[in-house]
Design brief:
The structure holds 2 protein chains of 2 kinds. In chain A, about 30% of the residues lie in helices and about 20% in strands. In chain A, the strands form 5 sheets. Chain A has a 7-stranded mixed sheet. In chain A, helix 9 packs antiparallel against helix 12 and helix 16 runs antiparallel to helix 17. The radius of gyration of chain A is 23 Å and the shape is globular. Chain A starts with a helix and ends with a strand. By secondary structure, chain B is mainly alpha-helical. Classes of the chains: A alpha+beta, B mainly alpha.
Chain lengths: ~550, ~325
């Protein structure tokens, strides 16, 4: 699913943001002289070869609320619950529990299951289990609902078992994005019998889980507040893991995490803070691995009535912000200039990637031009005597820095920008409660896409609300964009989908419904004795610890 | 022991009343400040339908008093509510974490008693030079916020010297103790300084009092004067301060817990507040009030046992 987007990211980061506020992190100014161009990107380490009894892994986002794949995106679930299709570290998709999963006609999608996959309790995965699992995502409360939006709503028709190892999904219109979504947690498989027995408690510390993944969560494995202990699934269909016990602990304080990792008290962590770069690259128990990511920092309009809704104002700000300075300050050099809200990594392994790449390359590279920016402000006809309010979440240094950079860029071109640092829960409420957005003109956030795909994420910002543009707060409505985006989603062949999307992007990119500030890399720190981890953003959707082991 | 019984009953009544009032304040304050929808939606994008469904399911549109009543009657049936975020019983969420906080606080109290009361006694009895030294050290201790001490300790003893672990609570008695030493020290510093000063001034007040002068004139040995007259008379004041100090430690522990990655109730409260997990915020806040009230009552009762006249004095003070 390509649209975890902002709301979820904002809510998920909420807790750690407040926590990190309590203790200073390592300063962002520690320049070790290493430039951006020296970074080597690694998406997966060589597989481990030696068995290891115990590995302790830190979850930098803090303790998850649930391990239910339908309701949460965190880095523990992918090792527990397999998805129907298997996302590779380079963001390509291969068969998983599903041997094949294809449209057999424009609105009928057939999934054929492998016949040798079993749940942790030894029972085989049946078509009924898959129907049950996929139906979780058709609930609006599911995080992956958007990917299933075009499935026939009637459960007796929409998702049905059509054979012992075959599931058929029927659509109200063709959907070129559905297959990619099955490589994410929208395609996670859970046991029906277990789910019905446990009910609402699925995925909680009391309820537990029953999945097929390489690691098992056993009764009492999750001690709230302390850790989550998982054990190797020796009968895993894709080979047993080398690590016998993988324990997750929760360390959301950046400096504590950096110290514990470099001291070797914790064996590894994904999403370590870029602010601790100097500590991670110094003498320590492990190494910092930099991988491809789809994560990016951006800001966009929050109101249809303010000057922020005028594309010229956003274009002007886009021209006033120095991206190189931004990268240096906010991500400590561990990022890159990204031209638009859909990053290159999200399509590089898709069919017709060349078309997407050519479309991306044709977009303007952000550059600083203060004079042109001033002119745009003038041309906009907006009353610039009223300050524009930029909302960021409180307590996170990277967003304080982001806000300060936007503010000073605004000042240079005659835009008065006020910063409103909001408490995490209020900031999260911005995304669904319109009253919370009153008095706010811009919102700055970080988001990422956990599966390949280019349509879902931008749709949130540029389609009319009734067509799924739930973050389209500026009321952007360009019929050409809507037509091309709809055509891209409903395309029955990959080439049409790609061409339609690129045509839409050509129009919407210069309107900056999100002013993209930087693309970030996936940062993983791992003990020198260990190897085998997926180090790209694919870790969110695939069992990244399957090949973890000793060197 | 009629007076004691009456005192006990009075205390108990006051305790229940305080808790009742506190529960109303906490319940309504929490409701007024947080919006739980994000927490309840569990990371999903809340559509208007979902928001409406959640509001109905969790009675978010009912008046505060109705929700308070629902909650209170639940409490009497042993149901303290369910976490919006974790979807589990809040008791099962709070209980294991409370153990860690309790151990941390106990260790901190031991440190405070040894170093705080100890240095206070030294300052009051060992001449001007010692007094000055302790005064300088306690000024320093009071000036250092807990998180600064935590960072210094991590830097020196965990990172540079590698003597102590930097995060986590450890398993088994010795490992747990070893993990709690640095957090306890970082938490204790401020309170050691505070208790030291209070001890010093309470003792000096007694040392200069008439009955001590009288005892001295009567030739009673200094050690005995200190034990029987000075320390005993100063103890109700020390106990009263200790009660609030220990209760304060439970709240202050949040900072040390976050810095050292301990999953106690302090860090739980911080997290729950950030995620607008109201039932958890309510229960932890109430728990802190209970601890505060109970510890104060216990301190009063011990004072009463030592010196039956202290209670009325204490209550009027």
């Amino acid at each position: 699913m390509k649209r975890i987007g902002i709301a979820a990211a904002a809510v998920a980061c909420a807790s750690l943001l407040v926590l990190t506020a309590c203790a200073p992190r390592d300063g962002g100014g520690s320049d070790d002289g290493a430039g951006n161009d020296e970074i080597t990107l690694v998406d997966a380490q060589p597989a481990g070869t030696q068995p290891v009894d115990e590995v302790t892994w830190a979850i930098a986002e803090g303790e998850p609320a649930t391990l239910n794949p339908a309701n949460s995106a965190n880095l523990i679930i992918p090792n527990l619950c397999d998805n129907l299709l298997s996302l590779q570290p380079d963001f390509s998709i291969e068969p998983g529990i599903a041997e094949t999963a294809e449209f057999v006609d424009p609105t009928t999608f057939v999934i054929t299951l492998r016949d040798d996959v079993t749940f942790w309790d030894g029972s085989p995965v049946t078509a009924e289990d898959v129907v049950y699992s996929l139906q979780q995502s058709t609930n609006p409360a599911s995080q992956w609902y958007g990917a299933f939006a075009l499935v026939v709503p009637d459960p007796a028709v929409g998702i049905v078992a059509t054979g012992p190892n075959e599931v058929t999904v029927r659509f109200v219109a063709p959907d070129s994005t559905f297959r990619d979504a099955l490589a994410g947690q929208g395609g996670a498989v859970m046991q029906k019998a277990f789910g019905e027995k446990v009910g609402e408690a699925v995925g909680t510390s009391d309820g537990g889980l029953m999945c097929t993944g390489p690691y098992k969560l056993e009764d009492g494995g999750w001690t709230p507040g302390s850790d989550i202990v998982t054990t190797a699934n020796e009968d895993y269909w894709n080979g047993a893991p080398l690590v016998k016990e993988l324990t997750y602990t929760f360390v959301s304080d950046g400096s504590t995490l950096a110290t514990a990792l470099t001291q070797g008290e914790i064996d590894g962590a994904i999403n370590v803070p870029p602010t601790s770069r100097a500590a991670f690259e110094g003498d320590g128990a492990g190494t910092l691995v930099v991988g491809h990511s789809t994560s990016s920092y951006s800001f966009g309009p929050a109101s249809s009535t303010s000057a922020a809704a005028n594309p010229k104002i956003r274009q002007a700000l886009n021209l006033a912000i120095d991206r190189e300075k931004y990268l240096e300050t906010v991500v400590n050099g561990l990022g890159y200039v990204q031209k638009t809200l859909v990053p290159e990594f999200s399509f590089q392994s898709m069919e017709e990637a060349d078309i997407y790449q050519a479309g991306y390359d044709a977009l303007a590279t952000p550059e600083v031009d203060i004079e042109a920016a001033k002119k745009l402000v003038e041309e906009s006809g907006e009353d610039v005597s009223v300050p524009l309010v930029l909302a960021v979440v409180a307590g996170a240094p990277q967003f304080q820095q982001t806000a300060a950079i936007i503010q000073s860029a605004g000042k240079e071109i005659g835009l008065d920008i006020e910063i409103n640092e909001m408490q995490a829960s209020d900031f999260g409420a911005l995304f669904y409660d319109p009253s919370k957005r009153e008095g706010v003109d811009f919102v700055a956030t970080q988001g990422y896409l956990e599966t390949p795909g280019v349509i879902g994420y931008p749709s949130l910002f540029l389609l009319p609300e009734q067509l799924g543009g739930i973050f389209n707060w500026s009321g952007y409505d360009n019929p050409d964009v809507t037509a091309h985006m709809t055509a891209a989603r409903n395309a029955v062949d990959a080439e049409t989908a790609a061409n339609e999307f690129v045509a839409a992007q050509e129009i919407f990119a210069p309107d900056y419904l999100q002013v993209t500030l930087a693309g970030a890399y996936q940062l993983t720190y791992i003990n020198k004795d260990l190897t085998g981890v997926v180090t790209s953003v694919a870790a969110y959707s695939s069992p990244w610890a399957l090949h973890l082991g000793g060197k | 022991m009629n007076a004691l019984t009456r005192t006990l009953l009075g205390r108990l009544g006051g305790l229940v009343l305080t808790l009742f009032l506190a529960s109303i304040v906490i319940f309504s304050a929490v409701l007024l400040t947080g919006d739980p929808i994000a927490a309840l939606a569990g990371g999903a994008k809340p559509t208007p339908e979902l928001v409406a469904q959640i509001r109905l399911e969790y009675h978010l549109d009912d008046p505060v008093w109705a929700r308070y009543w629902m909650w209170l009657s639940g409490v009497f049936q042993g149901d303290f509510g369910r976490s919006f975020v974790y979807k589990t019983d809040v008791v099962s969420l709070v209980a294991p974490r409370f153990g860690i906080t309790l151990q941390l606080v106990l260790l901190t109290v031991v440190l405070i008693l040894i170093f705080g009361v100890g240095s206070g006694i030294l300052a009051a009895t060992r001449g001007a030079r010692t007094d000055r030294t302790v005064a300088v050290l306690t000024s320093l201790g009071m000036a250092l916020p807990t998180f600064v001490v935590a960072i210094l300790l991590i830097w020196i003893f965990a990172k540079t010297l590698g003597w102590f672990p930097v995060y986590g609570a450890g398993e088994g008695f010795w490992d747990r103790l070893w993990h709690l030493v640095l957090p306890a020290i970082s938490l204790a510093v401020l309170f050691v300084a505070y208790i030291s000063r209070v001890t010093r001034s309470a003792l000096i007040g007694q040392l200069h009092s008439e009955h001590v002068d009288t005892a001295r004139v009567r030739g009673i040995p200094a050690r005995r004067i200190f034990g029987v007259h000075v320390f005993r008379n100063a103890s109700p004041q020390l106990l009263a301060i200790s009660g609030t100090t220990i209760a304060g430690l439970f709240a202050a522990s949040a900072i040390a817990e976050v810095a050292f990655g301990l999953g106690g109730i302090g860090s739980l409260l911080v997290q729950a507040a950030a995620r607008a997990d109201l039932p958890v915020v309510q229960i932890v806040s109430l728990l802190l009030v209970v601890i505060f009230v109970v510890l104060n009552a216990v301190a009063d009762l011990i004072s009463f046992a030592i010196d039956p006249t202290s209670l009325s004095e204490g209550m009027n003070a």
